[in-house]
Amino acid sequence: MRLTDHVKPIRFLKSDAAKLVIKDVQSCEDAQHTLTLLKILALGQKDIEEGKFDNADKFLAELDDLDPKEQIS
After folding, report:
1. How far apart are CA 55 and CA 49, in angstroms?
2. To bridge 23 with a disulfide, which of 6, 27, 58, 62 should be the other Cys (CB 3.0-4.6 Å)?
3. Alpha-helix residue ranges (DSSP H) falling in the chain
4. What residue ranges do the domains of the chain occupy?
5. pLDDT of the residue at 48
6. C-alpha distance from residue 37 to each of 17, 56, 68, 72 (Å)
7. CA 23 to chain centre
8. What is the rounded CA–CA span in Å between residue 54 and residue 35?
9. CA within 13 Å, CB half, 19
């Protein structure tokens, strides 16, 4: 078996506590992407709690008012 075939992290313990963890690059990148998405969600939730948002109808009306060259396709 190659290390890249092993998808679970390898943990080295000392006194029942992890001292070193080895994991493949893809798992590490996936974890970073997950953390980034969680941070974005937390920022969005904070904006909602602070009332810093527009309702969907207002947002869609603003999109309709954009110059056709600027509209998202």
Report:
1. 14
2. 27
3. 25-49, 56-65
4. 25-65
5. 93
6. 28, 22, 31, 23
7. 19
8. 26
9. 5
Q: Which amino acid is at 69?
A: K
Tokens of 51: 């009332």
Q: How far apart are alpha carbons 53 and 43 in whole angstroms?
A: 12
Question: Rounded CA gap, 64 and 36, in Å?
Answer: 31
Answer whether 58's CB lies under 8 Å from 50's CB: no
- What is the tens place of the pLDDT at every residue in 10-46? 889 999 898 998 888 888 999 999 999 999 999 999 9
Q: Which residues of 7-21 are buried (b: 16+ CB within 10 A; e: fewer)?
A: eeeeeeeeeeeeeee
3-state class of 17 per DSSP? Answer: strand
Token pair 């396709």 in the structure block, residue = 73
Give bridge partners of residue 11 from the DSSP assignment. Answer: 21
Angle at 1 between CA 18 and CA 33, to 5 degrees: 55
